[in-house]
């Protein structure tokens, strides 16, 4: 509902319909998997906004900051969802090699056998949300014209990425 106004601007009708079809079908086909994720306590207090801008690596330490503290609904997510956000961001930044490496290392590190089956679904979701946020910024009256143009271009990139995961 929140992205329908952007159809034809930052997302095509075909992409919108394909992503909607994919997510609806995934929910139906994997209902038992989602139920098991809840039952097995994979829904936890996570970062909620785990992407590259919130990670700082030094030779001695890894720092992850700026988690979502203002909204429990955004922060209490499936661990696979938080993992997928960072993997998606690596894909978006042109590093699918690091995305694959990160995702394939996290599942065994967390002893999470269900994570691999959820990766593309959650990466699609995260790319779509980023596309939505960038789309909204692209029409923000207070933003300068160039900033709105860049946001619209980013939104198109995120929606294309979401479509890739869906197909």
Report on this structure.
It is a single chain. This protein has helices at 13-29, 31-39, 72-75, 79-92, 96-109, 115-138, 145-166, and strands at 43-45, 55-57, 62-64, 76-78. It has 167 residues and is mainly alpha-helical. A hairpin with a 4-residue loop joins strand 2 (55-57) and strand 3 (62-64). The protein is globular and about 45 Å long.
Itemize the secondary structure elements and their pairings.
Blueprint: H1 13-29, H2 31-39, E1 43-45, E2 55-57, E3 62-64, H3 72-75, E4 76-78, H4 79-92, H5 96-109, H6 115-138, H7 145-166
Antiparallel strand pairs: 1-4, 2-3
Helix pairs in contact: 1-7, 4-5, 4-6, 6-7
List keywords for this structure.
globular, two-stranded antiparallel sheet
Structure at a glance:
This protein has about 170 residues and is mainly alpha-helical. About 60% of the residues lie in helices and about 5% in strands. A hairpin with a 4-residue loop joins strand 2 (about 55) and strand 3 (about 60-65).
